[in-house]
Amino acid sequence: MMPTIAVVIPNRNDSDFLRVCLDSVLNQPVLPDQIVVVDDQSTDNSLGVMREKLSGVSGAEIVVNPTCLGTMGALNEGLQRVTCEYVMFLSSNDYLTEGIFERAKSGIEKAGSPGVWSAMVWASDENGNFLRLSPSPVVSLTDSFLPPDKCVRLALTLGNWFTGTTLIYHRETLREIGGFDTAYQGLADLLAALTLSSLKGASYSPEPFGVMRMHSGGTLWKTLTNPEGLEAILGRIEKTGPELSPALFTRKFCERTKHRFRFAAIRASEDGGRVRFPHAQGIRYAIFDTVSPILGGIKKLRIALAYLLLRPFDVIPVVWYRWLGCVWIAKKHRGQSF
Questions:
Q1: Three-state secondary structure along 160-175?
Q2: What is d(CA 188, CA 226) in angstroms, rounded to the nearest whole number?
Q3: How far apart are CA 125 and CA 130, in angstroms?
Q4: CA distances (Å), 272 to each of 265, 276, 278, in order?
Q5: Is the CB of residue 144 less than 8 Å from the CB of residue 203?
Q6: How many CB atoms lie within 10 A of CB 110?
Q7: For 123-156, what is each residue's pLDDT tens digit?
Q8: By CB neighbour count within 10 A (0-12 exposed, 13-18 middle, 19+ buried), where does 65 fall?
Q9: Are 139 and 207 in contact (CB under 8 A)?
Q10: Rg of the chain's alpha carbons, rounded to an integer?
């Protein structure tokens, strides 16, 4: 029996993009079974767009938060409203490409009840103009089920192979781990996906089924550009992670996660050479702090230096899973328009 899938769309003042987002859901050949749009105290005409697009749509609901809960709070509010077996959380400034629910339902049915289903995405600029295939790791060249132990190994090897635009979570398992931990801020959805895949495995499709707009100022960007807050999150991962999934949140995984997220913070910062992490110690950080100012305003060199110092264990996996995998996928879809 095919699984049911709900879509939760959190929104705050994204009326410029919301129409495209909703159209991409409503124009699918196979529709989701529920649509819940959670408005987080918008002051633009978002509510008008929602009412126009969702009027008369079966299974659609508009939720208006009485207070501003933030992105993760809005996601949790939507999670409480849906009743389907699986749920997708789609940013109101991203959108989907044709066939995602048909492919997801088929993959989930074949896998049994995986913790998550995910696929790849295209990247566009803020206006929706094509940039490239987003270089997420290609962990299989065909639609596949990855059992929990393999998901744990992939998390250690890659850190992350998910793209949030296409992630579909097993609703009950997500609720069992407490939903999205708001203390993780912009990293909450990734950490939830890693946890669910380590508990129940993951169904994966090496096809782009979404479009992610590239822009600064989002929840993830705000998380990464606050070093003190990021350090608090890294400490919380070490403390609470093993309680949710001991197989995933090992000491080695937590250490690698620290280096990966600190590197991401350096890359996200306008002046990565001056980023300081209160609890980062060791020779690799000392070398970066010493050499980075010498590179001056050459941001690409600073990022390359940070990568080699903080993530040497990721060099080979990036070449194999990201570069070679994405070249294969991009060649397969050459000339395709979204």
A1: CCCCCCCCEEEHHHHH
A2: 15
A3: 7
A4: 8, 9, 15
A5: yes
A6: 12
A7: 999 888 888 888 899 999 999 999 999 999 999 9
A8: middle
A9: no
A10: 20
Judged by DSSP in three states, 73 sits in helix
CB distance 204 to 146 below 8 Å: yes
How many other CB atoms are found less than 10 A from the CB of residue 73?
18
**Residue 319 DSSP SS3:** helix
Residue pointed to by tokens 């991401």:
264
Q: Residue 157 gets which letter from DSSP? A: H
**Mean predicted confidence (pLDDT) in 83-92:** 97
User: Residue length, the chain?
Assistant: 338
Phi, psi of 269 (to 5 degrees): -75, 145
| Residue 70, H or E segment | helix 70-81
What does the DSSP assignment read for 1-61?
A: -PPPEEEEEEESS-HHHHHHHHHHHHT-SS--SEEEEEE-S--SSHHHHHHHHHTT-TTEE
Cα distance between residue 237 and residue 257, in whole Å? 9
SS3 132: strand
Task: State the pLDDT at residue 325.
Answer: 81
Which helix or strand (DSSP H or E) is residue 308 part of?
A: helix 299-310
Q: In the prediction, which pLDDT does 277 show?
A: 82
The two structure tokens encoding residue 200: 């129940």
Total Cβ atoms within 10 A of residue 309: 20
Residue 117, SS3? strand
Would you call 266 helix, strand, or coil by DSSP?
helix
Copy the structure tokens of residue 216. 């600064």
